[in-house]
Amino acid sequence: MSSRRSRSRQSSSGRITDQQIDDLMSKLQSLLHEARLGSHDRASAAKVLQDTCSYIRSLHREVDDLSERLSELLDAAGVSSDQAAIIRSLFM
């Protein structure tokens, strides 16, 4: 049985194919480049995944920083804890 035929059977059984992985990696790479305004060179899958992890970590740091800043602003404005909880829930 050919490799191609084997892959198509794997696809129908719910397993992801090599082509699907390639497509997903390309989409992920393009999203990273749009977010970072980087070059449009093809990168290895490992590099794309490393960049993705780094980008996600930076987003987590940004969320933490913004959350801390929101807490500071709410405290400075004298907002009660009940009101602060309502305001925070609007951002979730």
Automatic annotation (TrEMBL):
SUPFAM superfamilies: HLH, helix-loop-helix DNA-binding domain
MF GO annotations: protein dimerization activity
Entry keyword annotation includes Phosphoprotein: no
Ranges in a coiled coil: none
GO biological process, one term: regulation of DNA-templated transcription
Segments forming domain BHLH: 5-59
One Pfam family cited in the UniProt record for this chain: bHLH_ILI
Keyword DNA repair: no
InterPro entries: bHLH_dom (IPR011598), HLH_DNA-bd_sf (IPR036638), PRE (IPR044293)
Gene3D superfamilies named among the record's database cross-references: Helix-loop-helix DNA-binding domain
The entry's keywords: Growth regulation, Transcription, Transcription regulation
Family membership: Belongs to the bHLH protein family.
PANTHER family registered for this protein in UniProt: TRANSCRIPTION FACTOR ILI6, TRANSCRIPTION FACTOR PRE
Protein name (Swiss-Prot/TrEMBL): (wild Malaysian banana) hypothetical protein
Higher taxonomy: Eukaryota, Viridiplantae, Streptophyta, Embryophyta, Tracheophyta
